[in-house]
Amino acid sequence: MKRHPKLIIFDLDGVIFRGQYLLRLSRRVGLFGHLRNLCRCLLYEMGVLPIDVLLREVYTSFEGMRLAELRKAYDEMTLAGGADQAVRELKARGGEVAIMSSGVPDFIVRDVADRLGADMGYGIEVGVAGEALSGEIGGRLTVADGKRIVIEKLMRDGGIGWEDVMVVADDINNLGVMMKAGISVGVNACRPVREIATYLVDGADLTGICGLLDVGDKPVDVWESWLQDARRKLVHVFAAGVPYVAALAFVPVIAALCVMIVVYSVSEWVRLNGYKVPLVSDVTALCIRRQERRRFVLAPVTLALGVTASLVLFPYEVATATILIVAFSDSAAALVGRAWGTMRIPYNTSKSVQGSVAAFVVAYACAAFYFPVHVAAVAAIVSTLIESLPIVDDNVTVPIGTGLILTGMAG
Ligand SMILES: [Mg+2]
Predict the structure, then answer these.
(1) What is the phi/psi pair of residue 41, to 5°?
(2) Distance separating alpha carbons of residues 237 and 22, to the nearest angstrom
(3) What is the whole-number distance in angstroms between the Cα of residue 331 and the centre of ligand 1?
């Protein structure tokens, strides 16, 4: 179903502008001034500092700054790719497009609106003394609920309701209006926005926004989804090498696993707030499913924890066998289940009997490498049973459960 919003509000900082204008301007008030403003912006993003206090304090620090500097900082801002095209397409469907900012001076927002061909631009009023900023600010957009007030005025003028409004934004200042709007698009969005937005756009290009209105998120491509699964399983298979490296350098391997858990967790937190950690975020992006774009993807953490726990808790051969089982039997179950999994397991319909049989065979082969056949068979039954249970993540339960059984029987 094609949707035709009648009023489209684009946030400026972080959506049209790649980056924050106030932080760019802050570079002109010296290192300490810049750092202080950076802290204020952080406190604001954490929800500690209200927007009106943030703006007052930041603009007070700009007192005496010449207007030419504001213009120069504006010229330094990079615009998101395809912003003009998105505005053009939205207008072609009969929408009115407004650029709105609670932070950037009104004359700059209007200029951006002109450049992109938008109908309106709304920013904050800044006090001027001579050719410089007085440090004072004003206007409806400087208060906490400012955007809602301005948008509702536009809605009254146009005789439309919130269901006809679309808001495209990235940060918490827009959360209220995004929740009211008929359609909301989070662009490189922070976590709270990510959780509520109708659609998400990650990356430096806004060209696809109109496409979202026609077909929603692109249907999941079967081949792409298969590739994603294969990449995820590859991460599992990599785990198989860990015990062999640990045999050569135990402490460095444990330390490296702990570092990986921390680096990955930080990168996930950063990703959920609309930023990227080079390389780590790229790998994550290749592996995550669409619904996972809105939440912390825990599996790599639990996999690393499961492997670390096995190495620390169990004798070397037990640890190696359990890690091989985690690495290969889960992947085998997933691949076989996907291809031939017609018979569902009664107590867990998301998994198949065929997948579990594959998991058992592979787990048995892994354990039989190190243990007598009857021990390997029991270990394979235990790991397959745990794997088949309806628990969300078995990366820790499978190695711990199987490791305990193997230790008991082998000891
Ligand atoms: Mg923003």
Answers:
(1) -65, -40
(2) 46
(3) 41
- pLDDT higher at 191 or 312: 312
Give every CB contact of residue 349 below 8 A, 6+ residues apart in sequence.
none
**DSSP annotation of 306:** H
Report the distance separating Cα 85 and Cα 210, nearest Å: 9
Distance between Cα 133 and ligand 1 center (Å)? 23
Measured in residues, the chain has a length of: 411
Q: Indicate the domain borders of the chain.
A: 7-215, 222-410
Q: Are strands 17-18 and 78-79 parallel, antiparallel or unpaired?
A: antiparallel
Q: How far is the CA of 298 from the centre of ligand 1 (A)?
A: 28
Tell me the three state secondary structure of residue 376: helix
Centre of ligand 1 to C-alpha 220, Å, is 29
CA–CA dist 36, 29 (Å, integer):
10
Q: Strand 120-129 relative to strand 7-11: parallel, antiparallel, unpaired?
A: unpaired
Three-state SS at 138? strand
* Contact yes or no for 331/303 (Cβ under 8 A): no
The per-residue pLDDT for 222 is: 66
Q: Taking 90 as the threshold, does the pLDDT of residue 4 lie above it?
A: no
- Does the structure show a pLDDT above 60 at 220? no
Ligand 1 mean position, distance from CA 18 (Å)? 10
Q: How far is CA 16 from the centre of its chain?
A: 19
For the entire predicted model, the pTM comes to 0.73
User: Ligand 1 mean position to 201 CA, how many Å?
Assistant: 14
- Give the mean pLDDT of 368-373: 91
Residue type, 170: D
Q: How far is the CA of 112 from the centre of ligand 1 (A)?
A: 15
Who surrounds ion ligand 1 at CB < 5 A?
Answer: 11, 13-14, 170-171
Distance 172 CA to ligand 1 centre (A): 8
Asked if CATH classification 3.30.43.10 holds for the domain at 7-215, the reply, yes or no, is no
CA pair distance 184, 55, nearest whole angstrom = 25
Residue 296 binned pLDDT confidence (cut-offs 50, 70, 90): confident
What would the pLDDT profile of 172-185 be if each residue is shown by its tens digit?
A: 899 999 999 999 99
Cβ(346)–Cβ(325) under 8 Å?
A: no
